[in-house]
Amino acid sequence: MNIKILSRNSNLYSTQRLIEAAKKRHHHVEVIDPLKCDLIIEKRKPSIFYKGRMILETDAVIPRIGASVTFYGTAVVRQFEMMGVFTTTESQSLVRSRDKLRSLQVLSRARLGLPKTVFTNYSKDVGEVIDHVGGAPLIIKLLEGTQGLGVVLAETKNAAESVIEAFNGLQARVIVQEFIKEAGGADIRALVVDGHVVGAMKRQGKEGEFRSNLHRGGSATVIELTDEEETAAIKAAKAMGLGVAGVDMLQSARGPLILEVNSSPGLEGIEAATGKDIAKTIIRYIERNV
Questions:
Q1: Co-location of 75 and 143 in the same domain
Q2: Where is the ATP-grasp domain (predicted)?
Q3: Is the pLDDT confidence value at 204 over 80?
Q4: Which of 41, 82, 108, 140 has its CA 20 to 30 A from that of 254?
């Protein structure tokens, strides 16, 4: 097959592993920078030009679209879809996953466990917002943040009020969430491919850090999911319409709580923790569908 990986940097671990896995299974693979694609939109023959040449005979694309280039990256994925090309992440699901608020509403509608979350239009009654999530400590998240950036733990009501008021003053959209104390600064990342959990790891924040992101110095170990956690991860990926997804969950006294569903999950942490060849699983997913 002829596979294109949409990635801005062919040297990234995840991109390299996908190239390796595709070549091992005797596919032709090329990395293309979505920002260098020109889209020709017309009635009969939508097409894409990349660095001056027309892209022909593509069987599948693997979008590895960074958050900062979501708008144009999604347009490129959509153009491939119009050309009848299979994609591991559909454009509509990609857009939906990048909107934290919309994602939470979609997951809530699917009856999945979530930390209690409040979103307001820069409400002046900050005290009421805090009370809605059960008071401090609580989590404040910028809607635009990624990799743990723009996430604040406010340990007291005064601190929470100050942070929320500061964000509101800057016209920065935030969500306020209850703090799940029993999670102990750890979360679970389950990698779902084609409706199956293919790997899971527990990520623990470094000493004194409540965020467990590996980019923030957290550590990862392999974990065996409970049936309830596995079902929640599969349901979350399905609700978001994602063929490949990184589902982040907290372990709480009331069962697994979904934090977010990532449409472009990194492979390095999960492959290192589990010892599994996740890249190969993604290529096999394409083979079943093309």
A1: no
A2: 104-287
A3: yes
A4: 140
